[in-house]
Fold this protein.
Amino acid sequence: MTGKVVGDKMDKTVVVECVNFTRDALYGKYVRSRKRFKAHDATNQYKVGDQVEIQEHAPISRGKRFQVVRLIKKFVQE
């Protein structure tokens, strides 16, 4: 899954928000749903705003079931 890092305050952990667009069965309009996952970041290299890819992993802690696989796009502030 791909998503955007929305939190990096924890040690070796980032919060990644994944956005999904699904079509409503009755009205036909697209509905946005978002889900946040805690992902393992061993080197603390990912910062807020980065686009990353996460992958499911065996449980690392109580709330962490994912790990960051790679960086897709670095956040650049204007």
